[in-house]
């Protein structure tokens, strides 16, 4: 296993995503890596309604995204992450996570498995499956829901 210097984890504020944050924080602590916690948001209801994916929490506006990031930061601190940064991006969760990974030259992306086994996930794709296909770095899909 290679060393990880930058780890990105996505959160939408849900209990499931906080389990992914926990796992990423433990890894960041073990590698003394920087943990970048990212959150996507839609700028308005029209943009949000265009998504076909219903397996994610819809976050309208960056204020809600920033609040999610603050909660996730506090959660990550409890599990060993010391150097924590946050990033918020408009757009779909997949698009936002890919931008955050690229902007930070991350070596690892951590996401929860929510949606991967749903009917919608099988037909249209899911956030974890889509980021695993698109990412240029290692991807860890954490088992956060059954």
UniProtKB/TrEMBL annotation:
<dbReference type="InterPro" id="IPR006016">
    <property type="entry name" value="UspA"/>
</dbReference>
<dbReference type="InterPro" id="IPR006015">
    <property type="entry name" value="Universal_stress_UspA"/>
</dbReference>
<protein>
    <submittedName>
        <fullName>Universal stress protein</fullName>
    </submittedName>
</protein>
<comment type="similarity">
    <text>Belongs to the universal stress protein A family.</text>
</comment>
<dbReference type="Pfam" id="PF00582">
    <property type="entry name" value="Usp"/>
</dbReference>
<dbReference type="InterPro" id="IPR014729">
    <property type="entry name" value="Rossmann-like_a/b/a_fold"/>
</dbReference>
<feature type="domain" description="UspA">
    <location>
        <begin position="4"/>
        <end position="143"/>
    </location>
</feature>
